[in-house]
Amino acid sequence: MSSFVDLHIHSNLSDGLHTPTDVLADVRRRELTAFAVTDHDTLAGYRAVRDLTNDSDPELVPGVELSVSGGEYDLHLLAYYLDPDYTPLLKILEDFCNHRNQRAGVIVERLNGLGVEITLDDVIRVAQAAAVGRPHIATAMHASGAVSSYQMAFDKYLGNGKPAYVPKKNFDPELAISLVHEAGGVVVLAHPAIEETFQHLEMLVGLGLDGIEVYHPSHKPKQVDQFKHLAERFRLIITGGSDSHGRAGRYGEIGSLSVSEDLMPALRQRARQRKERA
Ligand code: AMP
Ligand code: FE
Ligand code: FE
Ligand code: ZN
């Protein structure tokens, strides 16, 4: 029987809907053999799920999804097997988290200026313990009836380049990659088809990128082949996951992508190499 993993899962400690308890329940139901909770710019999701697991659970890989910006682009990097207590990284993430909350206020002001009547309180009620992201704002907008759907909030207001889009403080790629390596982890380019961030692959490889997320719900079969070839060409490890946020749309459900466990040995080996060099 084949075994499956899911290396890209969000909880409600970033912009997912599922609590850590729900995430773990889903992982158990799906009988995955390994999984990673990769919340945006925080290790709190990983930590919360880790504290709920027991010895009979599948392997939980430490993970986080980092937001990176360069001159003209934004992209996401997934980090795996890093030391979740590496202070230099945690300090920066905390700073980003505070910045996110301030940015939410700016976005709400912009929306108000565009005639959308929502308050920062509405948004914070959605985000609860999480650092505020655009998905929380989109959810609050939909709940208040300002837009007809969650996706419409992005298409009309919040998406990159739309009128209420406010950029946030992000890592530059060099710093993100070197911090994760210092923390003994590996770095993977997330969902390279979204906004065609595969264009930056060669640059990232030059900075020490370890892998590419070949399997993602947004990838068409042709793109999966394309990214496999890129992995081979640049000697990158291959990862994959549902990017579950607990809501339908551009994401999958936990375990829904049937990513084979066969990719784990190469990932673990790369992590061992990084730890030796860290
Ligand atoms: P933030 O980190 O606050 O900038 O929000 C980024 C998150 O918003 C991404 O991880 C996605 O979950 C979501 N997102 C960004 N752009 C879109 C879009 N055009 N449509 C749907 N979701 C989006
Ligand atoms: Fe997200
Ligand atoms: Fe992402
Ligand atoms: Zn994600």
Describe this structure in words.
The protein is α/β, with parallel strands linked by helices and 278 residues long. 41% of the residues lie in helices and 15% in strands. The protein has 10 helices and 9 strands. Strands 4-5-6-7-8 form a 5-stranded mixed beta sheet. Helix 1 (20-30) crosses helix 2, helix 4 (120-127) crosses helix 5 and helix 5 (134-143) crosses helix 6. It binds adenosine monophosphate (AMP), fe (iii) ion (2 copies) and zinc ion. One fe (iii) ion binds at residues 10, 15, 40, 135, 245.
Offer a few descriptive terms.
278 residues, alpha/beta, five-stranded mixed beta sheet, four-stranded mixed beta sheet, globular, binds adenosine monophosphate, binds fe (iii) ion, binds zinc ion
| Oligomeric state of shown chains | single chain
Which regions are unreliable across 5 or more consecutive residues at pLDDT < 50?
Answer: none
User: Can you write the helix and strand succession as a string?
Assistant: EHEHEEEHHHHHEHEHEEH
Adjacency order of strands in the biggest sheet: 4-5-6-7-8
Q: How many DSSP E strands?
A: 9
Q: Assign a percent range to the helix content.
A: 40-55%
**Shape call:** globular
Task: Kindly report the average pLDDT value.
Answer: 96
The percentage of residues in β strands lies in 15-25%
Cα gyration radius (Å): 18 Å
Note the gap between the termini: 37 Å
Largest sheet data? 5 strands, mixed
Number of helices: 10
Structural class assignment:
alpha/beta
Ligands in the model, by name, code or SMILES, are: adenosine monophosphate, fe (iii) ion, zinc ion
